[in-house]
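Subject: Interface between my chains keeps coming out wrong

I've been trying for a while to get a sensible model of this assembly. When I model each chain on its own everything looks fine, but I need the whole thing in one frame so I can look at the contacts. Pasting all components below, labels as-is. Any help appreciated, I'm running out of ideas.
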Amino acid sequence: MSIRIDQLPRDKFIMPGTAACPGCPLLIGLRQVMMALNGKMSLVIPAGCSSVIPGMSPATSYGVPTIHVPFASSPAVASGLVSAVRMRGNNGPVVVWAGDGASSDIGFAALSGAAARNEDLIYILADNEAYMNTGIQASGTTPWMAWTTTSPNGKTEERKEMALIMLMHKIPYVATASIAYPLDFIAKVRKASQIRGFKFIHLYAPCPPGLKFDDSYTVKIAQLAVETGIWVLWEYNQGKLTISPPSAMYKDKSKRKPLSEYMKLQGRFSKVGEDAMKIYEAKIDAYWNTILKLSELYK
Amino acid sequence: MADLEFTKYLLSRPAPGSAGATGTWRTYRPVVNQDKCIKCGLCWLYCPEDTIDWLEDKSVRINYDYCKGCGVCAEVCPVKVIDMVKETVV
Ligand SMILES: Cc1ncc(C[n+]2csc(CCOP(=O)(O)OP(=O)(O)O)c2C)c(N)n1
Ligand code: SF4
Ligand code: SF4
Ligand code: SF4
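Reply #2:
Try treating it as a single job with all components included. I did that and got this:
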């Protein structure tokens, strides 16, 4: 099921002139979701940058029906919404688009509950690796050693592996994705929209002001995350777990780019020295081992 | 219908420029060298602001009223034919 760029819809799903910072990864990702579903969807968005980006009432930059809801409530609101639209005979996708703070910390209980009930939703965790809208506080997915305003010397805790946590909810579909690999992400969203039950996609979306890199590097940083192996693209579909094509070659550690190429472009990692870099590489290997073992288990 | 009066405050409708004329934020202007453009569409695909149109003939056109000058388009262009030119003060 390969997708070509020139077959994607060219409709303006996002109206230009938004309130997002220049180079915003969330808009890049949202455009890809809207292209994947051809704008035929309902969006549920909890508090975060994505509630501010659409600008000021009575206008909005979002060209699809969107409901903005309180922080911890998006999986619960979406569960109600999907029940209501199904009762009306509408089979269209209801998509939650939520930040990492909303998903891994503040709204985690509601997310876990909706997954346990296997609600017919597509949940996309748009991960910029901190609470960006309130000024860069560390969240559950902020990586180890990253600077944020609440981790001034680098985060001392480990990141939560949200996709693995969701996999253990035994839902039909779990995947990771990246804004730098739109065709992979779009294919995953389309696949998810064909499956009944709870679908979870963890999208890596690096943010220039929050991670402290140049506005023009948004796609480059996301691409380097995959090429260095720190972000692994994989997919679990109803019993089978596979490494996605853009990540496949990086199973072989020698093919990965040096981690420093990814780190050195981001101000948040400026305090990561050589020793910490070695420990970091070992953590990446350990994650890869887990995913590869799971791919043997879920064959 | 009186009870629906309040919905005008709760319901926003899609329109460009919901955060103003964001083109004024720009310090660098992306300029496409049309002669060398290979019409691949990658700049259109990745532009965060959706300010690039990928036209019928597969050439691209930038809407400078809203382009914020982030430079993502220039960075992703595979043949590097988008120049980021400093805006001059008028
Ligand atoms: C219950 C509650 N607590 C705190 C806030 C303030 N708040 C609004 S957005 C936000 C940060 C959101 O972070 P994240 O979910 O990571 O999304 P991002 O802004 O990074 O996209 C916070 C703390 C709130 N709106 N509601
Ligand atoms: S802080 Fe980051 S995620 Fe939020 S609007 Fe700005 S660029 Fe986008
Ligand atoms: S500079 Fe940024 S906003 Fe302007 S056209 Fe290029 S990618 Fe779009
Ligand atoms: S990315 Fe470069 S080559 Fe491709 S369409 Fe845009 S300007 Fe032309």
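Reply #3:
Confirming on my end. Chain B touches chain A at residues 8-9, 11-22, 25, 40-42, 44-46, 48-51, 53-54, 58, 63, 65-72, 74-76, 84 (CB under 8 Å).
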